[in-house]
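Hi support team,

I've been running sequence recovery on a batch of backbones for a student project. Most finish fine, but this one hangs at about 90% for roughly twenty minutes before it completes. I'm not sure whether the input is malformed or the queue is just slow. I've pasted the C-alpha cells below so you can try to reproduce it. Let me know if you need the job ID as well.

Thanks,
M.K.
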C-alpha cells in the first residue's frame, strides 16, 4: 500500500476492485476501463496537470498516463466513445465503468486533489464522480 501525506492510497489491484464494485463490471473489465479512462484523461489534461495526477496515483496506475504533447479538446460523449472503443463494452457498461473510475479517483485522491485535476475539464466530467455519502 502506498502512503502519501499520512493518507493511505489504493494500490492498482485494489483500485480495479473498487471500480468493479462501483460499476458492476468484472475486475478485468474494470482494469481495462480504468486504463482507457486514464489514457483519455491524459490526452485532455496539460502536461503539468498530467504530472500532478500521476504524482498522486499508485505507481501501478501511472503507466496509464502517457505524456501528452498537445491538449486534445473533447467532451464527455467523446470520452465515453473512446473508452467504449478501447474496451469493447456496451454504452451502459462504459458509462458505469467511467463513473466508477471517476468515483474511485475521488475517493483515492481526496476531494481537493480530485477537484484540482478536474478544473481543466468540463463540468460534466466532474459530475461523473458520485458524491460521497455524508458520514
Amino acid at each position: 500500500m502506498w502512503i502519501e501525506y499520512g493518507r493511505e492510497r489504493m494500490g492498482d489491484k485494489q483500485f480495479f476492485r473498487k471500480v468493479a464494485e462501483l460499476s458492476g463490471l468484472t475486475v478485468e473489465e474494470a482494469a481495462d476501463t480504468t486504463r482507457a479512462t486514464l489514457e483519455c484523461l491524459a490526452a485532455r489534461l496539460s502536461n503539468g496537470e498530467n504530472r500532478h495526477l500521476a504524482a498522486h496515483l499508485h505507481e501501478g496506475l501511472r503507466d496509464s498516463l502517457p505524456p501528452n504533447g498537445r491538449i486534445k479538446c473533447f467532451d464527455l460523449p467523446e470520452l465515453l466513445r473512446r473508452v467504449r472503443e478501447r474496451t469493447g463494452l456496451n454504452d451502459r457498461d462504459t458509462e458505469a465503468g467511467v463513473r466508477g473510475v471517476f468515483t474511485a479517483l475521488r475517493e483515492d485522491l481526496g476531494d481537493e486533489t480530485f477537484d484540482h485535476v478536474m478544473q481543466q475539464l468540463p463540468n460534466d466530467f466532474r459530475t461523473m464522480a458520485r458524491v460521497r455519502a455524508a458520514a
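--
Follow-up from support: It reproduced on our side and the slowdown came from queue contention, not your input. The beta strands are 2-4, 7-9. No action needed from you.
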